[in-house]
Specification:
With 238 residues, the protein is an alpha+beta fold. It is built from 6 helices and 8 strands; from the N terminus they run αααβββαββαβαββ. The strands form 2 sheets. It has a 6-stranded antiparallel β-sheet. A two-stranded antiparallel ribbon has the order 1-2. A hairpin with a 2-residue loop joins β4 (121-130) and β5 (133-142). α2 (35-42) crosses α3. The longest helix has 16 residues, at 7-22.
Length: 238
C-alpha cells in the first residue's frame, strides 16, 4: 500500500465505483464503502480513498446523511410528475413531511404578493423526505382560511384533492425551475457535511383554479442529485 496520495489511481477507482453504482450494483440508499474499505480493496492510501469518496459525493452518486463516515448511494429516481396528488409522486417511495413553521404571515415576500396580494397570508414551511433522506424544503403561502392549514399538523395524501374540493377544479401548476448552490441553512437542512458544493433546484410553483384564481404559491428547494429528468417534446412544423 502506498503511503501518499495517488492522483492517477484515484481517478481509476472513481470510474470503477461510479460504473458499479450506475449499473445498479449498489441500490439507492444503501451504505457505501468506507474509506478504509476502499483502501483495503484497491490497495491505496487512505488519502486516495477519501478523495474518491469526496468526488463521488460532489458528483451526486453519494450523500452523507449521518456524517462523513457513512455515505449512502443516491441512485436514479424518477422525476416528479407534478400533476399527481401531494405525496403520491412515484419518485417518493416512503414519503414524509415535517413541519418547521405554520403561521400567519403579515408581510409575505414580494415574489409571493405579486400572485396572491399583500396578505396577510398563511405560511407553511416543511421538510419533505423519502425514506431516510431529506430531498426537499418547501415553503408555501395560502389564504388564511385555506383548508390546507389542517395538513400542517397531520400531513397526508390527497392534498390537492382537498384544495380542489374547496376552491373548485384546478387548472394546474406553473413552475419556474433554476439550479443554484445551496446556502448555509439549506446545507444544514440537507445534512451536507464538509465544504463540497451542494447543487439544488429551486422550483417556484403557482397553482391556479380553472377560474384563474391563484390558491397557492410555493418555493421548493430540492436536492438536484435526486432528479432524473425525462421529457417528451412534440415536434411542430412552423
Amino acid at each position: 500500500m502506498s503511503d501518499g496520495y495517488q492522483p492517477r489511481r484515484w481517478d481509476e477507482i472513481f470510474k470503477t465505483l461510479q460504473q458499479e453504482i450506475d449499473q445498479g450494483q449498489w441500490p439507492p440508499d444503501t451504505i457505501f464503502l468506507t474509506a478504509e474499505a476502499i483502501e483495503k480493496r484497491f490497495s491505496v492510501s487512505i488519502a486516495t480513498a477519501n478523495r474518491v469518496l469526496q468526488e463521488l459525493e460532489i458528483g451526486g452518486w453519494l450523500y452523507g446523511a449521518h456524517g462523513v463516515r457513512e455515505r449512502r448511494v443516491v441512485g436514479t429516481r424518477s422525476v416528479s410528475d407534478r400533476t399527481t396528488e401531494f405525496l403520491r409522486d412515484p419518485a417518493w417511495k416512503h414519503p414524509w413531511v415535517q413541519t418547521l413553521a405554520a403561521e400567519v404571515d403579515n408581510t409575505p415576500p414580494n415574489w409571493v404578493t405579486q400572485w396572491m396580494g399583500t396578505g396577510p397570508l398563511w405560511r407553511w414551511k416543511a421538510l419533505q423526505g423519502d425514506g431516510i433522506i431529506i430531498v426537499a424544503i418547501s415553503e408555501g403561502w395560502y389564504a388564511v382560511d385555506s383548508p390546507v392549514r389542517a395538513y400542517a399538523k397531520a400531513p397526508g395524501p390527497n392534498f390537492y384533492g382537498l384544495l380542489e374540493a374547496h376552491y373548485g377544479l384546478l387548472a394546474g401548476f406553473q413552475e419556474t425551475v433554476s439550479a443554484r448552490l445551496a446556502d448555509f441553512d439549506e446545507r444544514k437542512a440537507f445534512h451536507a457535511i464538509g465544504r463540497a458544493p451542494l447543487l439544488v433546484l429551486q422550483i417556484d410553483r403557482v397553482t391556479r383554479t380553472r377560474m384563474g384564481n391563484v390558491i397557492e404559491v410555493v418555493r421548493l428547494v430540492d436536492r438536484a442529485s435526486h432528479y432524473h429528468l425525462q421529457y417528451e417534446v412534440p415536434y411542430r412544423h412552423f
